[in-house]
């Protein structure tokens, strides 16, 4: 049974994976367990979201939104790649999950079916860690390199700690019975890869690759751009003489030659 991590252990496993961690004031005791009478855990997966807004840390950690009290995730991930801890207990992030989708993540299946409400539902807030990654969610706002790298590290940290495979990492859109679309949008790049569009399949592949290495591992980076060679120095322009200048030069040459001949004759 995967018991939720203590606050101190959560900090430790994230830092061990190379994640830059900040702690939101009060996060260690801010949860929804007492208010709902439902204890967080056991946990079986990580659920990934986008915030659908900017400057959203306080909303996720402390303020919530109308009809949905905080905390709204366990971790808020900024564009800079900074992961701010918002809760160590139950958080309002997942809502109801389709049973068929949840079961595929629970069993770490290689294929995750489209969520079907007809299959039944599971309270996702009981069973999943939630990560809110800052992005407008409009399909054009870009996840930064630093942000995506930290995102992969956070998911891998949970998997490494619990002995899960990357198939325990899901997207909100892959479990929601409400037609959620997150996460969505382009990614600036990862490792040696340039810009690409976020998909759960690619994300899990990146988490799986990370899990093949020790927690201290970092993916290869794009080679530094080769500075352009300096432009060759253009040749000095050859002066173009006028007819008068050429005649003057010729006269000077003839005069000089005459002087040399006269000097020889006087010897």
Please summarize what this structure is.
Helix content is 34%, strand content 13%.
Report the helical percentage. Answer: 25-40%
Total DSSP helices: 9
Strand order of the largest sheet: 1-4-3-7-2-8
Shape: rod-shaped
Unreliable segments of 5+ consecutive residues: none
Structural class designation: alpha/beta
- How many domains comprise the coordinates? 1
Strand content: 5-15%
The CATH architecture assignment turns out to be: 3-Layer(aba) Sandwich
How many angstroms does the end-to-end distance come to? Answer: 119 Å
Write the layout of secondary structure elements.
Elements: H1 7-16, E1 20-23, H2 33-36, E2 45-50, H3 57-63, E3 75-77, E4 82-85, E5 96-98, H4 99-106, E6 121-123, H5 124-127, E7 128-133, H6 145-162, E8 169-171, H7 172-175, E9 186-187, E10 196-197, H8 200-211, H9 243-265
Parallel strand pairs: 1-4, 2-7, 2-8, 3-7
Antiparallel strand pairs: 3-4, 5-6, 9-10
Structure explained in plain terms:
By secondary structure, the chain is an alpha/beta fold. It has one domain: Peptidoglycan recognition protein-like (Lysozyme-like). The protein is 34% helix and 13% strand. The protein has nine helices and ten strands. A six-stranded mixed sheet has the order 1-4-3-7-2-8, with helices on both faces. A two-stranded antiparallel sheet has the order 5-6. A hairpin with an 8-residue loop joins strand 9 and strand 10.
């Amino acid at each position: 049974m995967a018991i939720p991590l203590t606050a101190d252990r959560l900090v430790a496993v994230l830092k061990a994976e190379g994640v830059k961690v900040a702690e939101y004031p009060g996060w260690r005791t801010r949860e929804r367990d007492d208010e709902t009478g439902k204890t967080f855990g056991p946990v079986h997966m990580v659920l990934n979201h986008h915030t659908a807004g900017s400057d959203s840390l306080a909303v996720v950690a402390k303020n919530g939104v109308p009809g949905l009290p905080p905390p709204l995730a366990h971790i808020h991930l900024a564009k800079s790649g900074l992961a701010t801890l918002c809760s160590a207990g139950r958080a309002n992030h997942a809502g109801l999950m389709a049973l068929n989708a949840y079961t595929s993540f629970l069993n770490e299946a290689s294929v995750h079916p489209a969520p079907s409400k007809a299959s039944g539902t599971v309270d996702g807030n009981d069973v999943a860690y939630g990560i809110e990654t800052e992005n407008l969610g409009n399909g054009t706002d870009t996840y930064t390199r630093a942000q995506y790298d930290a995102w992969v590290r956070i998911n891998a940290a949970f998997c490494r700690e619990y002995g899960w495979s990357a198939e325990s990492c899901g997207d909100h859109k892959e479990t929601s019975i409400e037609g959620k679309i997150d996460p969505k949008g382009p990614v600036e790049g990862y490792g040696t890869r340039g810009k690409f569009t976020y998909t759960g399949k690619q994300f899990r592949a990146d988490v799986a690759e990370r899990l093949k290495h020790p927690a201290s591992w970092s993916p290869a980076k794009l080679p530094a751009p080769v500075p352009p060679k300096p432009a060759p120095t253009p040749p000095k322009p050859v002066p173009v003489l006028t007819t008068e200048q050429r005649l003057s030069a010729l006269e000077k040459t003839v005069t000089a030659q005459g002087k040399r001949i006269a000097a020889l004759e006087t010897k």
